[in-house]
Design brief:
alpha+beta
Length: 687
C-alpha cells in the first residue's frame, strides 16, 4: 500500500510541453520534495519487486528492459532535486536533503540485494541465448550482472545488511560534507575597504568585487568571494601581498577551521566506512574496489602514470620558480616565493618572457562570445545548431535554454541549459548535469543537459570577461554536454556520459583544444570595447606561451591525485593533516604550491563516491585526449570533417554501449600512447 499523498503534488506530474516535456520550475516548492520522493521510492521498489517475482522465465525484455523503464517518476524528481541541491541550496532545503539522502541511497541496496532479481539476471547472463542478443543488449546485460556482483549480490544476508547500513550512513555523511563546505564558501569572503586594497586588480574585476559587496550588504568598498573564480584572479593580479595571503588562507582552509563547518571528522568517518565496505565485498581496500569497473583496473597502474608525469612537472616548476625568485630579488623583495605569490609572479614572468599579459587576453574573452564560439565549434565538427528558447521554465533568472538540432536535417537533438554565474546557495566549481538521458526503448527520448559555472557577474551593463583558464573550463564542461547530447543508444543506462569514470573526462578534455584554434580566436575573441579581434602578434604570443605554467597546473592536480589514491589504499584511520603532509613529503611536493584540492575541501572524493580513488581520471583521460587530438593534427587539422565524423560515430554517439578501451582503439587504430601527453605539455618524451 502506497504512502498517502496529494497526487496533485507538482513533482509527481509528468513533465509537459514540447521536447518530450520539461520540468516546470514555476510550480515546485521545497515542501513538495519529501512526500514526492517517499512516494516515488515506494513506487520504484514495488516495480522492482514485480520484476523479481515475475512467474515467467526471465527474458531480456521482462527483466532488463523492465528495469530500465522502472522508476521513471523517481528519475524526474531526482533530476529536479539535484538541481536544487547544487544550485539553489538553502537551510530549508538542507533539512530535506539530510533526511532524504540516506533514503535515496537505500534504493540501490534494495535493488542489488534482491536475491530473486539477481537470480533472474544471472540466469540470463549465463544462458546460451544471451549470445543471440545484439551487441548493445549484451553490453547492458553484462553491465547489470557485473554491477550486481560488485555491489555484493553474492554476499550472505548478514554482510548484505552491513553493506546497506554503510551505504546509508555514507549518503548522510556525503550530504553533511557538502553542506559544511558550501557554508564555508558562502560565509567567508575577503573584505576590501579602500582603493588601496584594490591595487593591481583589473577594472572589470574591481567592478565585480564592488557589486558583490553591495549584494552582501557590506559596509566595505568591495569583497572577494571564497570560490576559485574569485580567488584565483585576485591572487594573480593583486599588488597587495598581505591581502593575497589572506585570500589564499580562506580558500585553502575551507572545511579546516575548527568551527561548526569543519569537515575533518566527517571525512575520516567516510574513509573508515569505505575501507570496511571494501573488505566485506572481498577487496583489500577501497581503491581496489573502486577501480574494479574502471579502465585502469589496478591502482598501481595509476600511481605509475602519475609518477611518470610528476618528475618532469616538478623539474619544470623548479625552473619556473627560479625565474620568479629572481624577479622578487631584483625588485628588492626580501622573501621566498610562497603559494600566495605563485600566480602573481608567474604572471609577471609570463609578461616578461612572452610579452603576454593574462589581463590583456581577458579583454578579448567575453563570456557570451565564447558561448557562441562553442556553438560554432559544435556546428563545424558535428553539424549541431543552437536556437535560444524563451518559453521554457527555468529555476533562476540567470538560466537560459537552447534547443539543439542537426543543422543539415533539422532533427531535434535535445535541450541545453546554461547557468553561468556564481551566487549564494550554488556550489563552487563548474559541472555538467544530465537532467534526462537520451534513450529510445519506446520512442526517442531527447536528452536535457546543463552546464553550470561560477563566473562573476559584475555590473549588468558590462560584458562578463573571463580568464583563459575559465574559458578552457567552459569548453571542457561543454565537451561533457556534447557527450550527453550526441548520444544515440537504446537504453538509458548506456547513454551519454555513463562510461567508466576514467574515460568520461576524455571528450571534455578533448574539446578544450578548440578554444586555442585560430578559427575561434579570430572570429570570437574580440575586444570588449573596440570590437577588434586579437591581433596576429597576440595570437602568436598565446601559442608560444601555451605550455607556460604547465608544470604548476600538473603539480597541483597530480598531488591531489596521489593523496586521493593513497587515502583509499590505506585501511588505517588517518589524521588528515598528517596524512596530507606525509604524502606530499614523500613525493617531494614543491613548497611553493599546494594541492588543487586539500583533503578537508576535496568535494570530488567526499561529496559522493564519484571520484573517490578516481581523481587520477583527469590525468588518465588526458593521455587519451592528447593522443586523440593528434588524430586531427595528423589529418587536415582540428576541423577535419572525416576525423570529427569518426569521433561522433565511434565515441560520442555510442555512450557506454561498447567497451571503452575497444571504442577508443576503433577510433584511433591503436591504444592511447602517453607520449602524446608529454608532447602536449612540452615535457621530455622517453624514447
Amino acid at each position: 500500500m502506497k504512502t498517502q499523498i496529494d497526487l496533485n503534488n507538482p513533482l509527481l506530474q509528468e513533465w509537459s510541453g514540447a521536447y518530450g516535456g520539461v520540468p516546470d520550475f514555476t510550480k515546485y516548492k521545497i515542501s513538495d520534495f519529501k512526500p514526492a520522493i517517499e512516494f516515488a521510492i515506494q513506487e520504484k521498489l514495488e516495480e522492482i519487486d514485480a520484476i523479481a517475482n515475475n512467474a515467467e522465465e526471465p527474458t531480456f525484455d521482462n527483466t532488463i528492459v523492465a528495469l530500465e523503464l522502472s522508476g521513471e517518476k523517481l528519475d524526474r524528481i531526482h533530476a529536479v532535486y539535484g538541481i536544487y541541491r547544487s544550485n539553489l541550496s538553502s537551510p530549508e532545503f538542507n533539512v530535506v536533503d539530510t533526511e532524504m539522502s540516506p533514503k535515496l541511497a537505500e534504493i540501490s541496496d534494495k535493488l542489488y540485494q534482491n536475491d530473486k532479481l539477481f537470480l533472474r539476471i544471472e540466469k540470463l547472463y549465463k544462458a546460451a541465448e544471451s549470445k543471440t542478443l545484439n551487441t548493445e543488449q549484451q553490453r547492458l546485460l553484462w553491465l547489470y550482472y557485473t554491477d550486481f556482483v560488485r555491489e555484493g549480490a553474492e554476499l550472505n544476508e548478514e554482510d548484505k545488511k552491513e553493506v546497506a547500513r554503510i551505504n546509508q550512513e555514507l549518503a548522510g555523511l556525503f550530504t553533511l560534507f557538502s553542506q559544511k563546505l558550501l557554508a564555508e564558501e558562502n560565509d567567508q569572503f575577503l573584505e576590501l575597504k579602500s582603493e588601496n586594497d584594490l591595487d593591481g586588480l583589473p577594472e572589470e574585476f574591481k567592478n565585480a568585487a564592488i557589486a558583490e559587496a553591495k549584494e552582501r550588504k557590506l559596509n566595505s568598498l568591495a569583497s572577494i568571494g571564497n570560490t576559485r573564480s574569485s580567488i584565483e584572479p585576485f591572487l594573480t593580479f593583486s599588488n597587495r601581498r598581505d591581502l593575497r595571503e589572506k585570500a589564499f588562507d580562506i580558500f585553502v582552509k575551507r572545511g579546516d577551521n575548527k568551527n561548526q563547518n569543519d569537515t575533518n571528522e566527517t571525512l575520516v568517518s567516510i574513509l573508515q566506512l569505505r575501507a570496511k565496505k571494501a573488505k566485506i565485498l572481498g577487496f583489500k581496500n577501497f581503491a581496489e574496489w573502486s577501480l574494479s569497473n574502471k579502465m585502469a583496473k589496478d591502482p598501481q597502474k595509476t600511481l605509475d602514470l602519475m609518477e611518470s608525469v610528476w618528475k618532469p612537472a616538478v623539474e619544470k616548476v623548479k625552473n619556473d620558480v627560479a625565474a620568479m625568485q629572481e624577479m622578487v630579488n631584483n625588485e628588492g623583495g626580501n622573501f621566498k616565493i610562497q603559494p600566495w605569490d605563485y600566480r602573481y609572479y608567474a604572471e609577471k614572468v609570463r609578461k616578461a618572457k612572452y610579452d603576454l599579459d593574462q589581463n590583456e587576453i581577458k579583454q578579448y574573452l567575453q563570456l557570451e562570445n565564447l558561448r557562441e564560439a562553442m556553438f560554432w565549434v559544435a556546428g563545424e565538427l558535428f553539424n549541431l545548431g543552437f536556437k535560444q528558447l524563451f518559453d521554457v521554465p527555468v529555476y533562476h533568472p540567470d538560466v537560459r535554454v537552447w534547443e539543439v538540432n542537426n543543422m543539415n536535417t533539422g532533427k531535434l537533438i535535445g535541450l541545453w541549459y546554461f547557468d553561468p554565474y556564481a551566487r549564494v546557495g550554488k556550489r563552487s566549481g563548474a559541472w555538467m548535469n544530465s537532467h534526462r538521458d537520451q534513450q529510445k526503448i519506446k520512442q526517442n527520448v531527447l536528452p536535457i543537459v546543463s552546464n553550470n559555472c561560477n563566473f562573476i557577474k559584475g555590473n549588468s551593463d558590462d560584458p562578463v570577461l573571463i580568464s583563459w583558464d575559465d574559458a578552457t573550463t567552459l569548453f571542457h564542461e561543454f565537451g561533457h554536454a556534447l557527450h550527453g547530447l550526441c548520444s544515440n543508444v537504446t537504453y538509458p543506462s548506456l547513454s551519454g556520459t555513463s562510461v567508466a569514470r576514467d574515460y568520461v573526462e576524455f571528450p571534455s578534455q578533448l574539446l578544450e583544444h578548440w578554444l586555442a584554434t585560430p578559427e575561434v580566436l579570430n572570429k570570437f575573441a574580440v575586444h570588449y570595447k573596440t570590437n577588434l579581434p586579437l591581433s596576429e602578434s597576440l595570437v602568436e604570443r598565446i601559442e608560444k606561451a601555451a605550455n607556460f605554467n604547465e608544470g604548476f597546473a600538473t603539480v597541483e592536480t597530480i598531488s591531489s591525485s596521489f593523496v586521493d589514491m593513497k587515502l583509499h589504499l590505506t585501511t588505517e584511520t588517518v589524521d588528515p593533516h598528517q596524512f596530507e603532509k606525509d604524502v606530499l613529503a614523500e613525493i617531494n611536493m614543491p613548497s611553493e604550491i599546494v594541492m588543487r584540492h586539500r583533503i578537508p575541501q576535496f568535494a570530488h572524493i567526499f561529496s559522493s563516491d564519484g571520484y573517490a580513488a578516481g581523481y587520477y581520471s583527469y590525468l588518465w583521460a588526458d593521455v587519451i585526449n592528447a593522443d586523440a587530438y593528434e588524430a586531427f593534427l595528423e589529418a587536415d587539422g582540428p576541423y577535419d570533417k572525416k576525423v570529427a565524423e569518426r569521433l561522433y560515430e565511434i565515441v560520442l554517439s555510442v555512450g557506454n554501449s561498447v567497451d571503452n578501451e575497444s571504442m577508443y582503439e576503433d577510433f584511433r587504430g591503436h591504444a592511447p600512447k602517453s607520449g602524446a601527453l608529454m608532447r602536449a605539455r612540452n615535457f621530455p618524451v622517453e624514447s
